């Protein structure tokens, strides 16, 4: 029996869902249905992706009870933890380091800087960050111990450490926070943005990366589009709904980058029901096509938004 199967017997068949009658971000009750989707990973049922008519954020309905979310991640064996090896691992680390270097080189921050990688997952991006100019990097996630990929680096290098959300000191201050492929997994993104605002130095930078619901491939593949990732993704953003959200929570948008992710192998798996052991290589082979079609329609599979902390935090938990 695989770990995933044992986890299902541990409680996925009875997971609690909440039927939403209003947008969880702004409270508006009107929406359009973008996709009638389903859970292809844990088989917990069917879900709609609804776009709010007011704030234009799309959300998954029903939503998973937030106390049970940890069940999806505790074994670190989902696609959120790619665990790549060989040439795919080398190429991925090279790409992540290049991405991080490009972003950091264009931020008006003097050295040395402290960086938080919030929701570090398998630790690949934290590792890439730690190789640049020996910046001080704190990788953060909910597990009590670091991911295997980081364990050795933490022992050998003095500029990288791992902390669980619980062990993070509220008074720690960071110049840059990366929050990659996390915001869409969080039941209350407004609250998270408020917390990250408090962790940033004055005029510090927050870099958020999320899947793009307006990708050409989502429109073509519908419910088989991999990064809908139902029901772990509570939210589905496009460039304008993400910008609107962060601006409402005390940030100024400096730049939005359109990035590309090899989404086709898992999407094909969902569509055909055929699993492949060579997801990494299929992703590499189909990546040019993935990019070309999105560029043609001025879209992308992934959005990266660079925003700067305003002096005041706009978050008011009881305002709506
Ligand atoms: Zn809304």
CATH class: Alpha Beta
Number of helices: 9
Distance linking N and C termini: 46 Å
List unreliable stretches of 5+ residues.
1-9
Using the 3D structure, state the CATH architecture: 3-Layer(aba) Sandwich
Average residue pLDDT? 88
* Order of neighbouring strands in the sheet with most strands: 8-7-6-9-10-13-12
Number of strands: 13
The hetero molecules present are: zinc ion
Percent in helix: 25-40%
Q: From the helix content, strand content and strand pairing, which structural class follows?
A: alpha/beta
- How many strands, what sense, and barrel or not for the largest sheet? 7 strands, mixed
Total domain modules:
1
Shape annotation: globular
CATH fold description: Rossmann fold
Query: What proportion of the residues form beta strands (DSSP E)?
Result: 15-25%
The secondary-structure element order is HEEEEEHEHEHEEHEHEHEHHE
- Alpha carbon gyration radius: 19 Å
The CATH homologous superfamily corresponds to: Vaccinia Virus protein VP39
